Amino acid sequence: MHPQRRSVLHVDLDAFYVSAEIRERPELKGLPVVVGADPEGGMGRGVVVACSYAARKFGLRSGMPITQAYRLCPQAQYIQPNWGLYERVSEEVMATLRNFADRFEQGSIDEAYLDVTSRAGDEHSGADLAMEIKRTIREKHGLTCSIGVAPNKSSAKIASDRNKPDGMTVVPFGDVRGFLAPLPVGVVPGIGPKTREFLREKGIATISQLQQLEGRQLLAWFGKNGVWLWGVVHGEEAIEVKQQELPKSLSVERTFKDDTSDFGTVRREAADGVAELMRRVKSAGYAYKVAGIKIRFRGFETHTRERTLVSRTDSEGPLLESVDRLLDEFESKGKPVRLIGVRVAGIQRSSSDPSRLDDWTKS
């Protein structure tokens, strides 16, 4: 008896870091944009973290030295990475994607696998669901994504990369092998430059040529990974989408440009961090039961404190009040503060019933 065929979507956010920046600064849309180090007139150090599709037309790519990028495209907008922004936007999008999946597995900050077998068990309904996801991500988050629809994870990932940006590729569920056959071997996840060169020396450039090899040949070349590779190229890889647990905690940290002895400034930054953190908590549909702070003084002396609430909540008030009280201990120290952070833990899905918050914390 054959196991039920799965229906898997691979969702890949297009040029994610750059897209998040453009969402915050719409005037950058359509321009060559580079997230990475400041080129300092072509003399800077560091590499390109990400670049817009407009920048790629000039030959720019991720990992390129920033000096080389500047030579190719000095007119680009160069932006320092804002990791806090990217993490927040990613959390918001992933929370939305979870709602479409039977099982959900985040692959990285900008990609995820969705097992949608019970909702869209064939390629046609899978394509319909993918279009609904694309529309939702665009309308709710102001971002585009490319989606692969397939009966397994590896084929879905290969497919999502076929029509970027803002594309969708559907693998015929009854002929995965035929879909993969003409593609170059380098599209297979896990086949990097060294393996590609090894296969090239063997006269193998396409997946079709890999499909013609016997399994024992792949086993001899690649060991147990050869078994996996045989499954992938024949469209029979059957690794489950691994359902992921909730995060143990979420946090926001702010490092002061100059250490500050003004504790009012510290409290204001902490309150601003609370507001940002709660936007992330609410957008993800979470509730928390532990509120905490992290404070670092000059010389990297670091302390953490936390309070446990009586009941789990998704409200901002308990966190703000707890952070304010936890900071009281440190105000009298009079030491210059380098960093302030706020966090929540004890995370679960938020209940639809409003929490009772007459007494926020344990005495």
Question: What's the gist of this structure?
Answer:
The protein is α+β, with helices and mostly antiparallel strands and 363 residues long. Helices cover 38% and strands 23% of the residues.
Can you walk me through this structure?
The chain is an alpha+beta fold and 363 residues long. Among the domains are: 16-81, MutS, DNA mismatch repair protein, domain I; 175-239, DNA polymerase, domain 1; 249-349, Dna Ligase, domain 1 (2-Layer Sandwich). It is 38% helix and 23% strand. The protein contains 13 helices and 13 strands. It has helices spanning 16-24, 53-56, 66-72, 83-98, 123-141, 153-160, 176-180, 193-201, 207-211, 215-222, 224-233, 263-283, 316-331; strands spanning 8-13, 33-36, 48-51, 77-79, 103-108, 111-115, 145-150, 168-170, 249-260, 286-297, 302-313, 337-345, 348-349. The strands form three sheets. A five-stranded mixed beta sheet has the order 5-6-1-7-8. Strands 9, 10, 11, 12 and 13 form a five-stranded antiparallel beta sheet that branches. Helix 4 (83-98) packs across helix 5 (123-141), helix 10 crosses helix 11 (224-233) and helix 12 (263-283) packs antiparallel against helix 13. The longest helix has 21 residues, at 263-283. The protein is globular and about 75 Å long. The termini are far apart. 34% of the residues are buried.
